[in-house]
Amino acid sequence: MECKKDFPIFQESNIVYLDNAATTQKPETVINSFRIYEKYNGNVHRCPHKWGRLMTDEYERARQKAADFFHVKESGTVIFTRGATEGINLVASSYLPYVAEDRNEVVVTVAEHHSNFVPWQQWCRKTGKKLIVLPTVENENVDLQMLEEAMDKRYESGLNIQYLMQDMTELDLYGAVDAVVCVLDSINHLENEEAVRKTFECVSKFTCDGGLFIFDVNTAYKHRVILADNAFCYDLDGLFCAWQNELNDDDSVSIYLDFFEEQEDGSYCRFSEDFTERIYTDEFLSELVKSNDFELIGKYDGFEDSPVNDKTQRVLYVCRRINRG
Fold first, then answer.
1. Do residues 261 and 269 make contact, with C-beta atoms less than 8 angstroms apart?
2. Angle between the 282-291 and 193-205 helix axes, to the nearest 10 degrees?
3. In this predicted model, what pLDDT tens digit does every residue of 73-118 receive, in sequence order?
4. Can you list the positions of beta strands (E) in 135-281?
5. Cα dihedral angle (204, 214, 200, 273), rounded to 10 degrees?
6. What are the distances in angstroms from CA 278 to CA 41, 53, 101, 217, 252?
7. CA 273 remoteness from chain centre
8. Fewer beta carbons under 10 A from the terminal one: N or C of the chain?
9. CA distance 85 to 114
10. Of the candidates 245, 247, 240, 281, which has an alpha carbon nearest to the alpha carbon of residue 261?
11. What is the pLDDT of residues 134-145, one digit of tens each?
12. CA angle 115, 65, 3 (to 5 degrees)
């Protein structure tokens, strides 16, 4: 990597260094900056003598550079700390009490470094708030922004909603539920028939007698005709999306999405994702409904009260759990 050349410590070694969470190695520019102490030294904002004033000027120049890099309007709001642990502790002990006084939960993931876990744990113990630790799911990302928005809506509504993040093939709830809703072609994203079978078994296990199971799937028609090898562009307010598809021999579709989100300064930030949707036939799904003690109430064309036809792109299944007797 080109950037490795900036670090003198790596020039005499082929070592691959991955312990940056504990100690980050210093590039040459940082090492050179310490040579300022060969010229002068003094306490920043404390010493009235020449060296103190020179050190204060150097400090403020560094703070202005950081402000410019992060697009901060006032450099005086930039605070330097010794590391992530001290920085997060500072937020937890000084800023958080003012903005989270009426909130009851702090959400982190099990993947967090101690610097982003222990401060919140201590703050929750001190204030009586609830610390929610989300598990990670293989090959999936934890979208904390989406979760935050969902929790905000729950708070505003006053509803007692519990959020869980689990692999749907290993669903494990704290009790039975009256309804399970699985839409937006989530079933198509499962990798094989065995994964679909396990999902239906879990849903059956945690659905009350007489409870509903509502799910949808994209159809073979949508994969072969609508998505196929086609490309789509969406030019929305503040967001542009380029959507490319690749139809595979088994009628699965590989989907590649590139998003360009407009920033405040008029520039665009690009982020991408890709995934594969697979086809599961009506015969296979109907058999799973039956074998997992559900009765099929109806099948609909998308989210409309219309029957399925040859050009249906999305089939919505509505099922009821048979009483266990």
1. yes
2. 30
3. 999 999 999 888 888 888 888 888 777 777 777 888 777 877 888 8
4. 177-182, 207-218, 231-236, 239-247, 253-262, 268-277
5. -140
6. 65, 67, 46, 9, 4
7. 12
8. C
9. 8
10. 240
11. 766 555 555 666
12. 70
Quote the DSSP letter at residue 287: H
Q: The whole model's pTM is what?
A: 0.62
pLDDT (tens digit per residue) in 19-59: 887 788 999 999 998 898 999 999 999 888 999 999 999 99
Element (H, E) at 72: none
- At 245, is the secondary structure helix, strand, or coil? strand
Helix residue ranges, H only, 217-281: 220-221
Sign of dihedral through CA atoms 94, 98, 102, 107? negative
* Cβ-based burial of 125 (10 A; exposed 0-12, middle 13-18, buried ≥19): exposed
Instruction: Return d(Cα 317, Cα 321) in angstroms, integer.
Output: 13
Beta carbons of 106 and 120 less than 8 angstroms apart:
yes
Backbone angles phi, psi at 97, to 5 degrees: -55, -25
One-letter identity of residue 284: F
Question: Quick one: tokens of 256?
Answer: 């590649």
Q: Specify the length of the chain in residues.
A: 325
DSSP string over 99-153 = HSTT--EEEEETT--GGGTHHHHHHHHHHTPEEEEEPP-TT----HHHHHHHHHH
Output the pLDDT for position 290: 97
